[in-house]
Amino acid sequence: MGSIQDTVQGVELTQGSQDGSEQGGGARDSAVNVGQTERWGSALVGGGLAIYGLTRRTWSGAVLALVGGSLIYRGSTGRCYMYDALNVNTAEPNENPLVTVPAGRGTKVERSVTVNRSPEELYRFWREFENLPRFMNHLESVKQKGGGRSHWVAKAPAGKTVEWDAEIYNEKENELIAWRSLEGADVDNAGSVRFEPTADGRATVVRVTLKYDPPGGALGSLVAKLFGEEPSQQIEEDLLRFKEVMEGQGAGRPGQPLERSTGAGR
Predict the structure, then answer these.
(1) Residues of the chain with pLDDT under 70
(2) What is the torsional sign of CA 85, 90, 94, 98?
(3) N or C: which terminus of the chain carries fewer CB neighbours within 10 A?
(4) Distance CA 137, CA 146 (A)
(5) Spatial contact of 242 and 116, defined as CB atoms under 8 Å apart
(6) DSSP one-letter code for 228
């Protein structure tokens, strides 16, 4: 297995230098700064939001319809003015097959919680991925497929679901699990969880790092926030529930699910 430093670099998913990514792009239309897959996602999500918003006949519905219209424009033209302002261009090909979310794209989230259990116990529980929906409200299910691969089904805004296959690409027993989504994922993502004993050895700091690229890119992240499904809120609550499950009713009873809460951040 690689070092923890290698893993951190893998989770952050940096991809080459900016100069390298810009080379060879002269043949492309400089006005197009949104990749083809992202354009399709923007158009599909935008169309759904526009229709949903128009049927609401409320101010919030009007806002959603406007956001949907922006996503449709983004998908049809391949132009994102927000990307212009941020100097981001996702229209260039990603030539590194090991990178799930290229540099300059996606959103990174880091959260941690201290749990009064040993790293060994927490690692074993987390490594059985089927346990994750017990405390991660946004997950419908996780099924291990063997060979370090698994299939994930998660809740999405407006009552939808998204799915992806993932693989463990770095692991250190009782210390680290790092994973990334595979090609064809509805939401490109990668992350890691580390289990670090406290100085007195009586507890463990569980530290989660996640990087994800939601459907529709940066605007898709804004849409998720409007629906109250923003991942940083989700992960913060999930970790508090993980602490509860390991210190309270769920610890030692893997077959018993923890009652789910109805929202995030509460």
Answers:
(1) 1-31, 82-106, 214-230, 249-266
(2) positive
(3) C
(4) 24
(5) no
(6) T
